[in-house]
Specification:
Helix content is 56%, strand content 0%.
């Protein structure tokens, strides 16, 4: 099975891969360089440090907490687990829109007012996840408000990966090996560079993949922005996304983008 990569090794690899020194990262994150050196030496990063490192590294903070093996703070979690049923449908409809339509949909989502959190976020389909790479990747989708069935549908339409919902449970509990194809497609829907996600999860890629299709890039952006919506807001966006599509609106092409 794929071995876990500890966070100090992840950070070391990222800095080397990007050609960034400790001092440069410290300046970008506005933190003391010694704190970063401590993490590189094996210390567990604190919450405040991870929050500052995330934008400096170009990661979503929630993803960085997951990669570090730490609990995601409530304020970084999706707003409303009750919105889950609409998330995959919105993403799948979005990738069937032309570029201008996808941009319009994304602007509309971002323009919706931010509602208050009414209760702590609990995934709709909580189940045990392994501490290894498979569990981390599935957890990243949990924190994008995707259920396992939603993940199966979104992946099938946005990427070449076509797996059943229970298969993602097996991946999440660490009983299924991560493949280069799967990691590459996960990366597209997560909006993370494929070579970096592969290195961070310990899965070597036989060759450098090409960039994801524009539809996949926009799907990742839409998926992330949907985290901040309440269930009524998500239902409204789902109806809007479906109405923006040309006929037949009830059908979805498998692997819609041109990979």
């Amino acid at each position: 099975m794929t071995e876990s990569v500890n966070f100090s090794a992840m950070l070391t690899w990222l800095l080397d891969h990007r050609g960034v020194g400790v001092g440069q990262l410290a300046d970008r994150a506005c933190v003391p360089a010694d704190e970063i050196r401590g993490v590189l030496a094996g210390e567990t990063p604190g919450e405040a440090l991870l929050r500052r490192l995330a934008p400096a590294l170009g990661f979503h903070a929630a993803d960085l907490f997951i990669l570090a093996g730490l609990a995601v703070p409530d304020d970084l979690a999706p707003l409303d687990a009750a919105a889950t049923p609409w998330i995959a449908c919105i993403v799948m409809d979005a990738v069937h829109l032309p570029a201008a339509g996808r941009s319009e949909l994304l602007r509309t989502i971002r323009a919706l007012p931010q509602e208050g959190r009414r209760s702590p976020f609990v995934p709709k389909e909580p189940e045990p996840l392994a501490d290894g790479p498979g569990g981390s990747l599935v957890r990243m989708f949990w924190y994008r408000n995707l259920s396992r069935s939603g993940l199966a549908h979104a992946m099938a339409v946005v990427t070449p990966t076509y797996l059943s919902a229970p298969t993602y449970s097996v991946i999440g509990d660490g009983h299924s090996e991560l493949t280069p194809r799967l990691v590459t497609d996960f990366a597209a829907l997560l909006g993370i560079e494929a070579r970096e996600l592969a290195a961070l999860t310990g899965v070597p890629l036989p060759e450098t993949p090409g960039p994801p299709a524009p539809e996949a890039v926009d799907a990742a952006a839409v998926l992330w922005e949907l985290r901040r919506l309440s269930a009524p807001q998500a239902e409204h966006i789902a109806e809007l996304a479906k109405s923006m599509r040309e006929e037949p609106r009830a059908e979805y092409r498998i692997n819609a983008p041109s990979w």
